[in-house]
C-alpha cells in the first residue's frame, strides 16, 4: 500500500471505530498506542487531522477558545504579522474573523469589510463582528485608539 492509501485506510478505520461508539481508550488499545496519539489524530471534532478531509467548519472551530457569549472567543491557530488569525482555505490564506462571520451569517457583500466591535484582533466571536465599509473601519480605528495615538473623542449628547 502506498503512503496516501495507508493514511486514507487509517483515517476511515479510526472514524468508523469512533462513530461505532468506541472510546478513545478502546481505539488506542486496539492499535497498541496511547490515548493521546489517537486524540491528536482524530481531534476534538472527530475528524482525522488530515486537513483536506475535514470540512472548514470543523477545522475552524477546533482552533477557537470559546467562552461566554459576550466574551471574546480568541483564535488559537496561526496569526499573521498584523496579529489577525489566519486559516488556509482552498489554498488561500483567509482572515479568521472573516471565516467566522461567513460561517455564522453567510457571504460578505462586495464592498464591505468584517469589523471587530471589541478591538481584539484575535477575536472570532460572531457576536463581536459586524459589516461595515473601509471608512467605518478607519473611524473605529481612530476612536478605539488602535494606533496608540490620541484620537478624537466622541461624546454622547
Give a quick summary of the entry.
The chain has 157 residues and is α+β, with helices and mostly antiparallel strands. The protein has helices at 3-19, 24-31, 35-42, 56-61, 96-105, 134-143; strands at residues 64-65, 74-75, 86-89, 92-95, 113-116, 129-132.
List the helices and strands and how they pair.
Blueprint: H1 3-19, H2 24-31, H3 35-42, H4 56-61, E1 64-65, E2 74-75, E3 86-89, E4 92-95, H5 96-105, E5 113-116, E6 129-132, H6 134-143
Antiparallel strand pairs: 1-2, 3-4, 5-6
**What sequence of helices (H) and strands (E) makes up the elements?**
HHHHEEEEHEEH
**How large is the radius of gyration?**
20 Å
Q: What sort of overall outline do the alpha carbons produce when their principal axes are compared?
A: elongated
CATH uppermost class of the largest domain: Alpha Beta
Oligomer state equals: single chain
End-to-end C-alpha gap: 73 Å
**Into which percentage range does the β-strand content fall?**
5-15%
CATH topology name of the largest domain: Homing Intron 3 (I-Ppo) Encoded Endonuclease, Chain A
How many helices? The count is: 6
Q: Can you give the mean pLDDT? A: 76
Query: Biggest sheet, open or closed, and with what strands and sense?
Result: 2 strands, antiparallel
Total count of strands:
6
Task: Indicate the percent of residues in helices.
Answer: 25-40%
Instruction: Domain count, please report it.
Output: 2
Strand order of the largest sheet: 1-2
What is the name of the CATH architecture of the largest domain?
Alpha-Beta Complex
Structural class: alpha+beta
Low-confidence stretches: 1-7, 148-157
Amino acid at each position: 500500500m502506498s503512503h496516501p492509501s495507508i493514511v486514507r485506510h487509517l483515517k476511515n478505520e479510526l472514524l468508523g471505530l469512533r462513530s461505532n461508539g468506541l472510546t478513545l481508550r478502546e481505539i488506542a488499545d486496539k492499535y497498541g498506542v496511547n490515548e493521546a496519539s489517537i486524540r491528536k489524530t482524530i481531534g476534538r471534532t472527530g475528524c482525522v487531522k488530515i486537513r483536506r478531509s475535514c470540512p472548514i467548519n470543523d477545522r475552524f472551530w477546533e482552533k477557537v477558545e470559546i467562552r461566554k457569549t459576550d466574551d471574546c472567543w480568541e483564535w488559537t491557530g496561526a496569526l499573521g504579522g498584523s496579529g489577525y488569525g489566519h486559516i488556509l482555505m482552498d489554498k488561500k490564506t483567509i482572515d479568521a474573523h472573516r471565516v467566522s462571520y461567513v460561517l455564522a451569517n453567510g457571504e460578505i457583500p462586495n464592498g464591505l469589510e468584517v469589523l471587530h466591535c471589541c478591538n481584539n484582533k484575535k477575536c472570532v466571536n460572531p457576536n463581536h463582528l459586524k459589516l461595515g465599509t473601509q471608512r467605518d473601519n478607519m473611524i473605529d480605528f481612530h476612536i478605539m485608539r488602535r494606533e496608540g495615538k490620541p484620537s478624537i473623542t466622541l461624546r454622547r449628547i
